[in-house]
Sequence to fold (243 residues):
Amino acid sequence: MDTVVFEGYTGISLGDEPLIYDLFLLVIIVLLSCFALVFRACYSLFVQMIRGVVTIKERRNLFDNPTQETFFFDMFMRFQTLLLCAFVFFQVFCRIAALPRQNVRQTLILLAVFFIILFMFYLLKRFLYYIYGRTFTETVKFSLWNTTWHTLFYLWGILLYFPVLWLMFDRERFVGALIVFVFTYILFRILVIYVLIRIFYHKNAGLLYLSLYLCAQEIVPLLFLYKSLTYLHNVIEASILWQ
Fold:
């Protein structure tokens, strides 16, 4: 008589989702540690940038004559802001599209795609700013605007640690973290518009500048971002690799 050996219950594979969140948390911790080192090494640049936003007066651009310190600082702060924003967009996209996160390779590819889309969005805005500034404003004012905008962009990137860490440690309260992200973005845009008015507003042509700004800098880039995310969603739904 054959004996039946009980091998236990096979169960359902948990996939790689716990590993994915551990990997994300590791990346955020490393990024935060790098930011702490950059802040300590480039503390004087932080002070100069914040003073420039508060006073908003014509001065020498911090990045007109870049040194090794300012170049590294500039590149890291841009990368940090775009990467943290990509994390938030990734989490929102997975929730809305009900996309499973059970494969490390697919998850990293999707996160990289979001980073590339946001980077292209950033380049588009910078290109439009450049055309607008060189066409309708003086070089000195455009340089002042460029420095001040990047300062606000970098400060917004620092604030993004709050919603990103919230999403990492408390996935159940997703809406609360999303509200914090939206609030920081609205605050960033309000400060940008405030600085724009202070630098470029004139009684004769101020309304024209504001109209051009709203059309070229707000509506067109956001439309590009919306179309890119919609196309990405359609590609993922139609691809068997993500099923």
